[in-house]
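Entry for D-malate complex. Fields follow.
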Amino acid sequence: MARLNDNYLKLQAGYLFPEISRRVNEFTSANPGVEIIRLGIGDVTKPLVPEVLKAFHAGVDDMAAEQSFHGYGPEQGYSWLAQTIIDKAYKPLGVELETSEVFISDGSKCDSANILDIFDLSCKVAIGDPVYPVYNDTNVMVGRTGAADENGYYEGIVYMPCTEENGFTPQFPAEKVDIIYLCFPNNPTGTVASKEQLKGWVDYARANDAVILFDAAYEAFITEAGIPHSIYEIDGAKECAIEFRSFSKTAGFTGVRCGLTVVPHALAGTTASGEKVSFNQLWNRRQCTKFNGVSYPVQKAAAAVYSDAGWAQVKEVIDYYMGNAAIIRKGLQAAGITCYGGVNAPYIWLKTPGGMTSWDFFDKLLNECHVVGTPGSGFGPSGEGYFRLSAFGDRANVETAVQRIVEKWGK
Ligand code: MLT
């Protein structure tokens, strides 16, 4: 029999979101007819905006005629989409990029996992705690870790606890690492990093020959001026950082699938013999071999996000979700429930009432209020005692959910 990858067996539980679905399905089968309000997984609920749909349809129509039909596209994505992203999303931030530094993909979840292909297994990794579980689990899967200890920390990973005491901001790793995952605006805590804080990380990475994997999937939800939307707003970041972005939450593409990864030419790693080689060259090679690009109609739809009319419509939806975030945050805070985030991110990170464990609160919220959220401990041991609510719901549902939580646990 073929030997399997037993690193997978080190993973302690099923992936967080399917586990939540399993519990919710169990509840709904036992309680048919009970309506559940879903504020768990950060999945959007508003449809694609009209400008994006128009371009999507036009892209499909192009596929119907010989002259405009598109077969295999470039593995890196069409350069017209990369150029649009550079012009509309990066230039306004003062960031200059070349199209060959922008790789269009089917989403930043896949990219933030697949990027490990271009790093040696010996690289030491630092990860925030709590954090988007993909970073941790994919490092376990590739065999970079030993087993998990009784707290859920895997041997070989350097964890950077993000707690109430440090404002949910990771501190520099206590030991030398090669790869540092940063996610701002943060999933799950909803906190952001200032320019000074990001500069600190860029300076640290350059001084320590580390690469920052910067997940900016939620940058479009920043509402406060002065908060960086890209790590490349910081001088020197092109020499030490890879950035992931997504159309999923920004433009409702969770079911459409489109994201991008920026791998600057200036970012180099070393070979076994100490020679410097650009990571861009390796990522390009990886994508050419393992990926056949995002479909043409999807890339047409993605480009329309950045048309003037498209962006105005997309922004309206983002504002709607951030309106939900404000309702959740203010409603809970007024009722004496401690919570964070929800100002520059679509997530609210609340302290469970009465010191309940995250999963106990999940079960109570589901059974007694018929509301689904995400247990903080599912994002890492330091998330224990916290709970994440997503702002991507329907307004009336969000108001009802807040009212039920406040009635039950408000002071
Ligand atoms: C989340 O809820 O954390 C996200 O929706 C998960 C994802 O983007 O893959």
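NOTE: The chain has a mean pLDDT of 96.
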